[in-house]
Write a structure and sequence with these properties.
The complex is a heterodimer. Chain A is of the alpha+beta class. Chain A has one domain: Histidine kinase-like ATPase, C-terminal domain (Heat Shock Protein 90). Chain A is built from 4 helices and 6 strands. The longest helix of chain A is centred in the middle third of the chain and has 22 residues. The two termini of chain A are 30 Å apart. By secondary structure, chain B is α/β, with parallel strands linked by helices. Chain B is 36% helix and 35% strand. In chain B, helix 1 links the parallel strand 2 and strand 3. In chain B, helix 1 packs parallel to helix 2. Classes of the chains: A alpha+beta, B alpha/beta.
């Protein structure tokens, strides 16, 4: 595990947020890495005055996205960026696994009874509902998922 | 996550403390698997639960299905974040929340 600060990339500049240091971490795509990933985001957001509810929503989003990558991507590594400002955060997950666009996942039927229910797809659905923007691109052999949340 | 358990006859009380997510959901799943035999009433207290992810929803749904067959299940003291998760996912209509 390593954490480094680096200047903003062109990609983030295009999001038109004011300059903030970006933190980065690379981990093995396994559920065992979850605690490290959570601690990384906690540290990234620690200096900002994030409302408790938003912090919980971000934690949920990280849990959903990283667990999906760990379980299904077949990636060899995952790079994670976090760029937090006083009223927003940008999270980015880049994995070298098989191409998969979670934003294309059909929304689950949330009106079914307990007996008819299948839990599949609920995680990414929650992320889409609680975050302000979820964008996917496949570039240079990487699935890149960028999530923005404002408060 | 910590689970505090209390049994009163066929009534089971579980109080969850912490986060119910990918890492901790198996803990609750194991607890329920070993505890629901003969239980007619399952009461879960979420007062000290910060949030839950879909991994937690999966375990909650399984518990609800089991209790639909053998009695009832009630969840109490749900915070705003968790309430919103239940709303967004439609779980609000499946669960009994007080």
């Amino acid at each position: 595990m390593f954490i480094e600060k680096k200047p903003q990339s062109d990609d983030i500049n295009s999001l038109d947020f004011k300059s903030n240091p970006m933190k980065k971490i690379t981990v093995s795509p396994q559920l065992d890495s979850m605690d490290t990933v959570m601690a990384f985001f906690d540290e990234c957001l620690a200096e900002q005055n994030v409302p408790a509810k938003v912090a919980a929503q971000i934690n949920i989003a990280v849990d959903e996205i990283f667990s999906n990558i760990a379980r299904y991507s077949g990636a060899s590594s995952v790079s994670i960026d976090c760029e937090a400002g006083e009223d927003h955060v940008v999270l980015r997950f880049a994995d070298d696994g098989r191409p998969y666009d979670p934003t294309e996942e059909a929304d689950p039927d949330v009106t079914l009874s307990a007996e008819e229910r299948d839990i599949g797809g609920l995680g990414i659905f929650m992320v889409k509902k609680t975050m302000d923007d979820v964008a996917y691109e496949y570039r240079g052999g990487f699935n890149i998922l960028t999530i923005q949340k404002r408060w | 996550m910590n689970i505090t358990k209390k049994t009163d006859g066929t009534v089971l009380y579980l109080a969850l403390d912490g986060r119910l997510d990918t890492t901790t959901a198996p803990q609750l799943e194991a607890e329920l698997k070993g505890s629901l035999d003969g239980i007619t009433e399952l009461n879960m207290d979420f007062e000290k639960l910060e949030y839950l992810s879909s991994a937690g929803l999966r375990v909650i749904l399984a518990a609800q299905k089991t209790m639909n067959k053998q009695g009832k299940m009630t969840i109490r003291h749900v915070n705003e974040t968790i309430h919103e998760v239940f709303e967004v996912t439609g779980f609000i209509d499946i669960l009994t929340i007080e």
